[in-house]
Each structure stands twice: as C-alpha cells, then as structure tokens.
Design a protein that fits this description.
heterodimer; A: alpha+beta; 5-stranded antiparallel sheet; B: mainly alpha; two-stranded antiparallel sheet; 23 helices
Chain lengths: 369, 552
C-alpha cells in the first residue's frame, strides 16, 4: 500500500516572497521521515504541498512514479493529522473515524469493520458514541490518528501533532505514533520543530532552514556528524570555539587560542590547509582536568574558569569561561565529591573522535563523512 | 487539473452572481437616487434641491434635530447600558437569566409602538398624567417632542449597549482585574482605568449602532414628535407628499443623509483603531456575590430600568383586553376580546403576509450570508473584497433612504417591482443582511480551515465538505442569526412603509395603520400579537444559541 515520495526542484512562492527556492527530496517506502526546523523554515509549507493544500510554483512531486502536482487533494489517498487535530466537532468519535470510508462509498459493513478495527487499535473504542469535545487532548489525538489511518492511506502526513499536548502526554503519544507506524509500515512525513521529538520517532530527518534542506540523515548522523554549524547548534547543544587548523607533516592539528594543540585524524584530505576554523564541541565531549596551581601552565588543555555549576542528579552542568571570553557549557556525570568550585581554574580536553570542525563561516564540516 | 478548475469556477460563479445581485438591488438604486437628486426640472443637471435644503432653515433644522436626538440617545444609552452590563457580568443578580431575556426583549419591539404606548401613558390625556394631576395637581412635563423621542429610543436602544459591552466583558481575563486589585486599585478606579478601556472597541461599536438606529428611526418622531421634525420623517413626507409629491427633493435629502451617516461611520472606525487589543482570555470573569447594600442597589437599578422599558408593552397588553367600542377607537368599562376580533377582521392578510414575507426573507438572508461569509473568509480576492465592502453599505443607510432608493429604481421600466411582494422581500433582505453576514463571518473565522482540509484529505469533495462539514459547524450560529433576522424583519417599519401596498401589509404596518387612525383597541391587540411572536422567537433563540452571546 505504502509508496515512496520523490520531490524534485520544488519551488514555493507567496507573491514576491520565495519560501522554498529549490528543494529535492527522496522519502523511502515505509519510512518515518521528519521535516525538522525552526518556525518559518518552510517545513509545514512543504508538507501542505505534498498534501495538496498549497499550490506548487515549480518542480515535481511523485508518489512512487505517479506525478501528483495537480491531483485533487481528495484523490491523493493521504492520511493527515493536523496540529489542532481538526476533528469534526459535530460528529461522534465513530462518525469521525468513518468519515473517510463514507467518502469512499464503501459498503456499510466495510465501514463498520474498518472503524471498529482502528477504534480498537487506538484504544478509543469505548468512546465511539461520544462527541469529541468530551475527550481529553490525548484521546482527541488518537481519534485524529484513527481517522487518518482507517482509510489505509498511501502516505501519512503529520503536522506538529503533539504540540498541543502537555510534556508527559507528548512523550507517551510519540511512542504510540512510532509504534503504530512500525506496525503498519506506512510511509510517514512528520513535521516538528522539537529536535528531541524528531530524534525519538524518525528513521531519517531532514533539517530545514530558510526553505532549504541543510542535511538529511539518521538521528545519529545528524548528532555526530552535522554538516554545518546550523545543524550542529539546532540538533542538540554545541559549544562553539574559534581556533586554527594547522598542518604539520601532513597531520592536522587544532590549535586553540592558548596554544593547546590537538591531533585530528579524520580531517578530509582536501581541507588539509592552515586556516581559521570553528570547533563544535558538545557538552558531554569535554574532559575536565584538575591541575595544581603550580603545574597549571605546563598541563595540556584549554584554559577555563568555572563560573557556576548546577547539580542535576545524574549529571552536573558546569558553566565555564575561556580566556578568550567565550562561554561554554559542560555536562559531566556527577561525582560523589564536588571537586570543582566556583572561580577555580581548570584545563579542558576534548574527545577528538567526537568533536566536529567547520570552516570559518560554519558552512561545511571539514571532517570525513 | 480539470477537476480543480471546475471547483474554482463554482465559487467564482457564486461570487459574480452575488456581486450582480448587489449591483442590481443596492448600487443601482443608490445611483438612481443620486441621479434623481441632481436632476433639474428640464432633466438636466441641477443642484437646486440641495440649495433649497440648505437655504431653507426649516429643512436644515430637521437634520440638526435628528443629530441632536441621536447624540443624546447615544449618551443615555451608554450611561444606562454600560453599568448594567458591568453589574450583570461581575455580580450574581436575582433571576439573572430572566433579566437577560427581558433586557433583550426591550430592544425588540418596533419603536413606534413604544412611542404610541407612552402617549397613552404620559400623553395629554394619558393614564399616568391624569392620575398624577388628579391626585396632586402637578402637571407633568410634555412627553411630545424631543424628550419623548429620546425616552422611547433610549429605552429601546440601551439593550444594544448592554449586549455589546457584556460580550466584551466576558472576554476580559479575570487575572487582569485581579492584577489591578493586587496593585492596589479600588474597584471604582478599576472600572474606569481597566474595564472601560478594555471594552472600548465594543462600546464604540455599540455607540455607532445606537446612533445609526436613532438617526434612522422613523416611526417614533412621526408619532410622538408632533412639531419636532426629523429628516427620516421629512423624506417620507416629501415622498408621500402631504402637500406635493417631490421625489427629487426626497432623493436629495437621502443623499445628504447617506453622506452624514458615512462620515459618522468613518469617524467611529477611526476611533476604534485607537483602541485595538487582543486579549488572551484564559479565565473569564466569575460572578461574585455582592454585599447586601450593593445587591439591593444593582437589583433595583436593573429591574427598574427594564420595568420602565417594558411598561409600554405591558400597558398595551393590558388595554388590548379592555372592552372597546364597535369602531375600536373608544374603550368601555370591562374586559373583552373585541379588540382582537376587530383587529383581525380589519387587518386583512397581515399575519400571513408577515409570515410569508418574513420567512422568505430569512431564507434569502441566511443563504446569502453563508455564501458571502464563505467567499469573504475562505476565497479572498478582488470580487470577495468588493462584496465584503458592499455588504456593509446597507448598515449605514437609513431605512427610509433604502425605501426611496428602491422606489426610484424599480417603479419605471426596465424592471418594475413596486407594489409587489418581491420588493418587500428585497427591502427586508437588504436591511438585515449586513448583520447576518457579520455574524456569519465571525462564526466562520472561528472554524479552523484545517477541519475542511481534513475532510478533503479523507477523500470528500469540496462541495461535499462545504455542505457536510462547514455548514453544519456553522449551523448553530446560522439558526440563531435566522431567528434574530426574523425578529428584526417582522418589526421593520421605516423601509416597508414606503414600499407597501394593500396586498403586502405586514403586522407591524397594520399596527401603524391602526395607530394612525386612532383605533387604539385593535392597535393594542395587534401589538400584543407581535410581542408574542417576538417573545416566542427570542425564547427559541435562547434555546438554540449555545454561545449565549447575542449579536444583533
């Protein structure tokens, strides 16, 4: 049932404003694919182009091999879940779920069986005869999902479906969504601005900014090898430190401001040149080295002073200031003794396999894949 | 692609159709009015009627009188209506629901009926006048003229202020009031510094509505004004011609009236833009129990106000059951149903006419309102924009002007409609449609478009979505709107009095005819029947309307 989606050179304009300049994308059959980006990045616009609610100013949209650019939204066989659920308030839960089946003029038996199956699957069978206003947010969400899935759509589209729920329900519903998607193996395009939510549910994520795709990859790829500074800072937290790349005997070193040099073994051959770079280090990729005051200058590492720390149980957050004035955050597993006090000068080392380095402008990653 | 285009064409077609209707029944008559007002005796262009109007102090004074009445009525309506709305919203009062129904009822009778009943009560030989004079020898000040008109219009129009302002109060978040209290403001200062400014857009809207209604009202000054002439009366006189029929002069006054109301409308718009806020209301104000002294004061205030406003209707109901002479113009001791017998016999087919004209008009009003609101909200474009603006035009045009315009447009070829039922229906639809469109637009704007998209993505066609999802979701508001339209239509006088013939007399018109002939008994009886009609309709409305907000 499920299909692949191919988008080639899509363009979206509102009057003079170009929202999406040129976007191409392949979504595999049965994949859980997420469009992730800050608000205004064009992710919902793109989703609505797939659904057929936005006009397409250029490019081609395919379901499998079929061009759908001008296909009536009603004929695309799409299940859609809206941000505000868009449940018909004047129809009962069951009538809502049956709506798409009736539109397809199925026999009454088929309609009843289909509705029964999905009411049960989404665990809302006991609310069948109630009006939606009597349901909680989570239950309404389940109705919206059941209604979208019962028509056995080729594609499931979800537009920030969890943004109206409280934090606890959000976590619960995202595992429900993921579970159902796995079970039905339906091609799903999911839109969110919440990177944690995206990581939790997606097979692959497209990170978007200003109408263009920055990077497409699995959650792991995006986190560990972001292609540019935007992705590095949007997915998870990254500390940004300015430094230089220095090549000696065909070996690459990061030279930090205070002279600390770090060997990098995975720099791309073509980027092996002396130049200014941006080092992107995640809070957990630092190692705090505590040194006696008299040995401080001789010890390897970036010089830093502790501004403050917060004990959060499992982890402790440290807020540090470098000699350059750059401020960084570090997360360490909590230890029994709080050995690092406010105002203490320490050395920082980093895990050279995990960190990323970008060119001066942050446009691309200098490391191998 | 083909499918898509044909769907678009349906709404385009509807848009152009509606635009055509507006051109034919609104733009064309107004244009005809303008043309007539500047037509010289020889058929050429002339401003003689305008010159005459401004040169003759008598004509100009009608305009000034209307203006005075409107401003004073507006002032009193705001002064009485705003506190009532405030008390009603923040305090628990006696029989709150009943109070609301009665307040609304006050606004729903035809004003001239009120004027007529006040004459029976406070006129030269009125009941109260006579009693007081006999008991104390004091002669009450005259009810005729300016004071009487303001009394009648205020008691009828303050409920509009009440409805608008209490609607606005409901949307104020209670935490705003709590914040002001927390910052140390007294409840008295709070009312002026927080509550009033936040309600300002609604107060201005209500003020405009009261002003327009007072300015356009025709029946009240005609009956209770005596020598106090206002311009709607003057238009009518010029048209029916106590001395000589003068369509050109009536048209000229109409044009002047439109210019004035348009200016007032624009001024109000300008003021409103200065008071625009969006309030994110999470907790609406909860009514609290007032202290004993406050409770007594607010209950007396509210119930005295509605009692005085309802007094004319109550008195009419009373005298409708009094024994009356065979002619219907004199009362005799004792009670009987004679007034009803005489009234029903003489009025001819007024009741069926009312139901027929009112019913058909309501159907057209609703149909047009749904289509126009859909075009305006969901299909924005040039055509929709033009329709949106045109739809508000009748709102600012006095009823008698619409009457004149329709006569001028449709009493000569190519389209002759004067004297038909059709023109009565047209005038009712035109008068009522701005209100219903506005409320439909408000309803539709609250329905998220994603609901329609959900239906379409589930495979339903656009037309099926419109009738299966959009219209049913609007239905509550539509039915309430229909009932309010119905009430407004059956009590309409100022346009229909210009257009009616013996075959198209409505209940309200027949009451007017009885009143003008001095047959008090049947007039009271018919007014009672009309009151019963409106009360039943209003109760039905309260039953159906979920929102409990009445937008007139």
């Amino acid at each position: 049932m499920s299909v692949s989606i191919k988008i080639e050179n899509a363009i979206k304009r509102y009057g003079e404003n170009t929202i999406i300049p040129d976007l191409s994308l392949n979504i595999k059959e049965g994949e859980f694919f997420t469009l992730l980006g800050p608000s205004g990045c064009g992710k919902t616009t793109l989703l609505r182009m797939i659904a057929g609610f936005n006009t397409i100013e250029g490019g081609s949209f395919y379901f499998k091999d079929k061009l759908i650019n001008d296909l009536d939204p009603a004929k695309r066989n799409i299940g859609m879940v809206f941000q505000n659920y868009a449940i018909f308030p004047h129809l009962t839960v069951r009538k809502n779920v049956e709506y798409g089946l009736r539109a397809r003029k199925y026999t009454s038996e088929k309609i009843k069986n289909g509705a029964d199956e999905f009411l049960k699957l989404m665990q809302i069978d006991e609310y069948g005869n109630r009006l939606p206003e009597k349901l909680s947010g989570g239950q309404q969400q389940r109705v919206a999902l059941a209604r979208a899935l019962v028509i056995q759509p080729d594609v499931l589209l979800m537009d920030e479906p969890l943004s109206n729920l409280d934090a606890k329900l959000r976590v619960e519903m995202r595992s429900v969504i993921k579970g159902i998607q796995n079970k039905l193996e339906i091609t799903t395009v999911y839109v969110t601005h919440d990177q944690e939510e995206a990581m939790a549910v997606s097979d692959r994520i497209a990170v978007m900014n200003k109408g263009t795709i920055q990077q497409i990859g699995t959650p792991r790829e995006l986190y560990q090898r972001p292609v540019n500074l935007f992705v590095a800072t949007f997915i998870g937290k990254s500390n940004i430190i300015k430094a230089k790349l220095e090549i000696e005997n065909n070996k690459s070193y990061i030279k930090f401001n205070n002279g600390y040099k770090l060997l990098m073994e995975n720099v791309n051959e073509e980027n092996k040149k002396n130049k200014n770079i941006i080092v992107s280090i995640r809070p957990e990729e630092f190692v705090i080295v505590i040194v006696n005051e008299d040995e401080y200058e001789n010890e390897d590492g970036i010089n830093a002073t502790v501004r403050d720390s917060i004990f959060l149980g499992l982890n402790t957050h440290f807020f540090l200031t470098l000699e350059t004035g750059e401020e960084i955050d570090i997360i360490q597993e909590s230890t029994i003794e709080n050995v690092v006090n406010k105002g203490k000068k320490i050395k920082l080392r980093v895990n050279n396999k995990k960190i990323n380095i970008f060119d001066e402008k942050g446009d691309f990653n200098l490391l191998i894949g | 692609m083909k499918k898509k285009r044909s769907q678009l064409e349906i709404w385009n077609f509807i848009g152009f159709g509606i635009l055509g209707l507006y051109c034919l029944f609104l733009v064309f008559p107004l244009f005809r009015t303008l043309k007539t007002s500047v037509a010289g005796a020889d058929g050429g262009f002339s401003l003689m009627y305008f010159k005459e109007f401004f040169a003759n102090p008598y004509y100009f004074s009608t305009l000034l009188n209307s203006f005075k009445i409107s401003v004073v009525t507006m002032f009193w309506s705001l002064l009485l209506g705003i506190p009532l709305a405030y008390f009603y919203t923040i305090y628990v009062m006696k029989a709150q629901k009943f109070l609301q129904i009665v307040i609304v009822l006050c606004s729903m009778s035809a004003p001239f009926i009120g004027a007529y009943a006040w004459i029976l009560l406070l006129g030269r030989s009125g009941l109260i006048t006579v009693i007081i004079e006999r008991l104390s020898g004091i002669v009450l000040p005259s009810i005729y003229g300016f004071n009487g008109i303001v009394l009648v219009l205020t008691t009828r129009l303050f409920p509009l202020v009440f409805l608008y302002v209490s609607g606005a109060l409901k949307s104020i978040d209670s935490s705003l009031l709590e914040a002001s209290q927390n910052l140390g403001e007294s409840s008295f200062r709070r009312f002026f510094n927080v509550v009033l400014p936040l309600c300002m857009p609604s107060i201005l809207a209500a003020a405009l509505l009261v002003f327009m209604r007072a300015l356009a009202d025709f029946g009240t000054p005609l009956i209770i004004g005596e020598g106090y002439r206002t311009f709607p009366v003057e238009i009518y006189n010029q048209y029916v011609g106590e001395t000589a029929v003068n369509h050109n002069f009536a048209a000229a006054i109409s044009v002047i009236a439109i210019i004035i109301t348009a200016l007032v409308f624009l001024f109000q718009k300008f003021l409103t833009t200065k008071f625009k806020f969006t309030i994110n209301s999470l907790h609406s104000i909860q009514r609290t129990k007032p202290k004993k002294g406050v409770s007594i004061f607010i209950n007396i205030y509210a119930y005295l106000l509605v009692f005085i406003s309802m007094l004319p209707q109550i008195y009419l109901i009373y005298i409708s059951f009094k024994k009356t002479s065979a002619s219907g113009s004199l009362f005799e001791p004792g009670f009987s149903l004679d007034s009803y017998r005489i009234g029903l016999k003489r009025m001819g087919s007024a009741i069926p006419n009312t139901i027929f004209i009112g019913g058909i008009s309501v159907i057209f009003v609703i149909l047009l309102a749904i289509l126009v609101s859909y075009l305006v909200v969901r299909r924005t474009g040039i055509v929709s924009n033009v329709i949106d603006n045109l739809s508000m035009v009748p709102y600012i045009i006095p009823g008698s002007v619409i009457g004149i315009a329709l006569v001028l447009a449709f009493n000569t070829k190519p389209i002759v409609l004067t004297g038909t039922v059709a023109i009565m229906i047209i005038c009712m639809v035109i008068r009522r449609i701005p209100y219903t469109i506005r409320s439909s637009v408000a309803i539709l704007q609250q329905i998220p478009i994603s609901i329609e998209e959900a239906s379409i993505s589930l495979g339903a066609s656009k037309i099926k979505t419109f009738f299966g999802i959009t219209v049913p979701m609007m239905s509550n508001g539509i039915i309430s709107g229909a009932i309010l339209s119905w009430i407004a239509i059956i009590t309409e006088l100022s346009t229909s009095i210009i257009l009616y013939t013996a075959h198209t007399v409505t209940l309200t018109l027949s009451i007017y005819i009885f009143v003008s002939r001095g047959t008090d008994g049947p007039a009271a009886a018919m007014a009672t029947i009309l009151s019963v009609f409106t009360t039943i309709s209003l109760l039905l409305f309260m039953r159906i309307s979920k929102s409990k907000d009445i937008i007139l």
